[in-house]
Design a protein that fits this description.
By secondary structure, the protein is an alpha/beta fold. It contains 21 helices and 20 strands. Strands 3-2-4-5-7-6 form a six-stranded parallel sheet, sandwiched between helices. The chain has a six-stranded parallel sheet with strand order 11-10-9-12-13-14, sandwiched between helices. α1 packs across α2 and α1 packs parallel to α6. It is globular.
Length: about 550
């Protein structure tokens, strides 16, 4: 019996379906027409979400990987297409989110001549992605795709760039498609190592758990929470991973990230043993590498990470453990050390921070966020890009075990809207709320068209203060009274959103927000609410740290 012949594009798509892929995000290009042709026959199995810009498509794939724990797929054309998409590749790497980006490439007979839109992908993306590879032989598509899929998921998850020469995709092959993904067991610690962990924690006076990463399972999260609560050890989230631990737990004490509250800084500095699980010790989580001494911290550090390359990369641990977060968490057993007061003080510092007092703005975001805490369902998904406005979803929302946060560790503006669209594609029935500044929103506002076409319309809150707020804050601090290049003249956001079929309103007073948000939730076509925010809200004159310290002072006075 003769083997079936198919071209490279068909073989790639058939293999992706077998691996379990259900969505791909992208912008079409002539360099990978054979892949687009193969996707014509996979409707309902592997659907192509047509995006408006490759940067937006890559953000959607990165968010999909972070949310779903499966490689987010992105399809873009060569040269300008993939350079547009590079922002999403960088974000997926910093987020440790699994992603595969497929890029068209010039024909193999033209390589090395600087042909039209030619790029050496290994040279360009070798340090930005986890792996960059080009498939020159059609017969090797299953082999290299299997490696790319496994590489994106295992160790420290991340993005893989796969270049697809145009003539390779149209070549015929008898190679069999993949039959499914490889199952790779998560590395687990041995009993002797866990005994060391117990001994170090038991001997601590002020232990602290610091966790991060996006490849947690529900079982791993529940095991970590049960251990922390039973042991009376406070838990702090690494930058923008607070949704991976139930914020309503008495052990949860806040997030170590941008605008780090004073009580979190104190917790890290005062701890004598830190159990760091699945975190890569980025700049934001360490307050610019000042909370722990480099390279040997004053605190005794137990660093648990699935990748050996993360252990000792910045800080030399007292004990380094190469293990997956879920396998490690489920191996933990409660310890006792009389830390109830330490844990309670840590929790009180976090809870006090929600008492902000009135904000100097037509729409008071403190009250808005409090309203959202009251009315959003338990499984709401919040997203944001980058800017001062991100303190509201990042510091003043309480994430229960079913809620999720999609926010970029890379600090990339424009991430929030594409991430929200990806979340609605994944979970059409869940409430998805995107927080966006006026500058941040305009980085990818064209993706409202993607949302409209895909039927994946979230609720978007545009915090309009007419400035690039974060940059203005630094500018006023460093060059006072010399504003330059940070004032925005904005379009009519309501009319723009309406042109994409969204329900849209402008909210100019705090008291009008609840009714407007109720209408937004009732809309069947998504919603954009433009919120009038004063430029003075959350500036250097009123930093997040000052706001929280004032709240603590009020609580102490009571």
């Amino acid at each position: 019996m003769a083997k079936m012949k198919r071209n490279g594009g068909q073989l790639l798509v058939d293999s992706l379906v077998a691996l379990g892929a259900t969505r791909g995000f992208g912008v079409p290009g002539e360099s990978y027409l054979a892949v687009l042709d193969a996707l014509h026959d996979t409707n309902g199995k592997l659907d192509f979400v047509l995006c408006r810009n490759e940067g937006g498509a890559a953000f959607m794939a990165a968010a999909w990987g972070k949310l779903m724990g499966q490689p987010g797929l992105c399809f873009v054309t060569r040269g300008p297409g993939v350079t547009n998409a590079s922002i999403g590749i960088h974000t997926a790497m910093q987020d440790s989110a699994p992603m595969i980006i497929f890029v068209g490439q010039v024909g193999t007979d033209m390589k090395g001549r600087e042909a039209f839109q030619e790029i050496d992908y290994g040279a360009v993306f070798g340090t930005m992605a986890k792996w960059a590879v080009e498939i020159d032989d059609v017969d090797r598509i299953p082999e290299i795709l299997a490696r790319a899929w496994t590489s994106a998921l295992t160790g420290r998850p991340g993005p893989v760039v796969v270049a697809l020469p145009e003539d390779m995709l149209t070549s015929l092959t008898e190679a069999a498609a993949l039959s499914g993904p490889a199952r790779v067991a998560e590395p687990a610690p041995d009993a002797a190592t866990m005994a060391e962990v117990r001994a170090m924690l038991t001997g601590a006076r002020r232990p602290l758990i610091l966790f991060g990463g996006c490849n947690w399972t529900a079982a791993g999260q529940q095991a970590l929470q049960a251990f922390a609560e039973a042991s009376d050890i406070p838990v702090v989230a690494a930058f923008r991973y607070q949704d991976m631990f139930d914020n309503f737990s008495p052990a949860y004490a806040g997030e170590a990230g941008v605008g780090m509250p004073a009580h979190v800084k104190a917790l890290v500095r005062e701890a004598d043993v830190i159990l760091a699980i699945n975190t890569r010790f980025g700049e934001m989580t360490t307050d610019g590498y000042t909370l722990l001494s480099v390279p040997v911290p004053a605190q005794r550090l137990i660093h648990v990470h699935v990748s050996d390359r993360e252990i000792g990369k910045v800080y030399q641990p007292t004990l380094g453990i190469q293990a997956g977060p879920n396998a490690f968490a489920t191996a933990l057993t409660p310890v006792t050390g009389g830390w109830a007061e330490w844990r309670a003080k840590a929790r009180a510092g976090w809870e006090a921070g929600f008492d902000l007092g009135p904000q100097p703005s037509p729409v008071d975001m403190g009250l808005v966020t409090a309203h959202l805490r009251d009315v959003l369902p338990e499984d709401a998904i919040l997203t944001n890009g980058a800017g001062n406005f991100t303190v509201w979803p990042n510091k003043f929302y309480k994430f229960g075990p079913e809620a999720r946060l999609l926010a970029p560790q890379s600090g990339a503006m424009g991430y929030g809207l594409p991430a929200a669209i990806a979340a609605k594609v994944a979970f059409p029935d869940r409430t998805v709320v995107c927080f966006a500044g006026d500058g941040d929103f305009q980085m990818n506002c064209q993706e409202l068209g993607t949302a409209m076409q895909a039927g994946a319309q979230p609720i978007v809150l545009i915090l309009n203060n007419g400035i690039y707020g974060t940059i203005r804050a630094h500018q006023e601090r460093t060059y006072p009274a010399r504003v330059s290049g940070t004032t925005l003249e904005n379009p009519d956001f309501v009319r723009l959103a309406q042109s994409y079929g969204f329900h849209a309103e402008k909210v100019e007073r705090t008291e009008d927000f609840p009714a407007a948000f109720a209408r937004a939730r009732a809309s069947q076509s998504g919603a954009v609410l433009e919120l009038a925010i004063s430029p003075e809200a959350l500036t250097p004159r009123q930093t997040l740290s000052q706001m929280r310290e004032a709240a603590l002072a009020r609580k102490d006075a009571e």
